[in-house]
Write a structure and sequence with these properties.
Elements lengths: L8 H9 L14 H9 L7 E5 L5 H9 L4 E6 L2 H13 L5 E5 L11 E7 L8 H9 L2 E12 L5 H14 L5 H7 L20 H12 L9 H8 L5 E9 L2 E4 L15 H4 L3 H8 L3 H12 L3 E7 L9 H9 L9
Parallel strand pairs: 1-2, 1-4, 2-3, 4-5
Antiparallel strand pairs: 5-8, 6-7, 6-8
Helix pairs in contact: 2-3
Protein name: Ubiquinone biosynthesis O-methyltransferase
Organism: Nonomuraea coxensis DSM 45129
GO biological process, one term: methylation
């Protein structure tokens, strides 16, 4: 991924036609990433943050509003999406955010960042591993990344439906009509409720459904598989949260009894005492595998870093890196 245009033309065309995540600057910012970042890092004052694949900027502006003493750069290849993002930032008076047109895997930006956020982007890259390498090259030696991915288990049926649409549309059929004929529509609560979207208008729903079913490139992972993307560049990676239909939760492998900040507890996973006792007797990596199998999440968050990056992370993340570092591998 060293060419200036890393994305195929059909990917670029999709987002020019359907700016994502929300197609209008009139929609309010989305704060789910800002909340997740706030629960991950103890102090971002003065930090330089890159939002790689910022789209229309609704999550980036949410972060810029929550962290006014942090400098943000939004990177995206879509001119239409960036036009929405710039107007959104102007409407909300965000002077701590700037935007640049470019691509993950394209031309180097010529600067490094303390933190990189990239939510729902890496799994759409033609070469996700090379994309992670490119992002790692833009981090300071003590830098960290906050990322979000589709989860293989909860997304299995949707990905089969997407493949059917792609095959039928390859015969020059109208993709929009196909979605209607097949009664395919993305639930706005598929990845949780309350913070996922600020706008549930028909226009926003169309953009979300297009991204879900018409995107030419989709990869989905479980915890161990996504660790393979990070292990070559990062000494530690931690699964910090999961999403499912109508719900989301924080992962705290050091304490499966404390529900603070919406953490998933052993009782969340297993109502039956015998199963709960068996779960609590496992090592932390096996507990993570149980969580995936029990919840079958639609998406999940991973934080990774190097150098002294753990020093700026919350205790929950530090304990997660000590107890269940995904980059260490491990046998079933």
């Amino acid at each position: 991924m060293t060419t200036e245009h890393a994305y195929p033309r059909d990917v670029r065309d999709l987002y020019e036609r359907f700016p994502y995540p929300l197609p209008t600057p009139a929609a309010e910012p989305i704060f789910d990433t800002a909340i997740g970042v706030d629960l991950t890092f103890t102090d971002l004052d003065g930090a330089r943050v890159l939002d790689a694949g910022c789209g229309t900027g609704h999550r980036l502006v949410g972060m810029a509003l929550q962290f006014p003493d942090t400098s943000f750069l939004g990177l995206d290849f879509s001119a239409g999406s960036l036009a929405v993002a710039r107007e959104l930032a102007r409407r909300h008076g965000c002077e701590n955010v700037a935007f640049e047109q470019g691509e993950i895997g394209g031309a180097a930006l010529g600067r490094r960042f303390d933190v990189i956020t990239s939510t729902g982007v890496i799994h759409h890259l033609p070469d996700p591993a090379a994309g992670v390498t490119w992002l790692a090259g833009h981090l300071e030696p003590d830098g960290a990344m906050y990322t979000w991915f589709y989860h293989l288990y909860g997304e299995y049926d949707r990905l089969l439906e997407r493949r059917l649409v792609r095959l039928l549309a390859g015969g020059d059929a109208d993709a929009g009509q196909l979605l209607r004929d097949l009664s395919l529509s993305l639930s706005m609560a598929r990845y949780g409720s309350g913070t996922s979207h600020s706008d549930v208008s028909d226009e926003a729903h169309v953009a979300a459904t297009a991204d879900a079913y018409l995107h030419p490139i989709v990869n989905a992972y479980d915890f161990d598989a996504v660790a393979g993307l990070f292990a070559p560049a990062f000494p530690w990676a931690v699964a910090t949260g999961v999403n499912w239909q109508d719900g989301s939760g924080v992962i705290n492998v050091a304490d499966w009894a404390d529900p603070k900040y919406g953490a998933i507890t052993a009782t969340t996973l297993f109502a039956e005492p015998a199963a709960r006792t068996a779960f609590l007797g496992l090592d932390p990596r096996s507990q993570l595998r149980c969580l995936e199998l029990a919840l079958r999440p639609t998406g999940f968050t991973v934080v990774c870093g190097r150098g002294a990056s753990l020093d700026r992370c919350a205790t929950r993340i530090q304990r997660g890196a000590a107890l269940a570092n995904l980059c260490r591998g491990g046998e079933d």
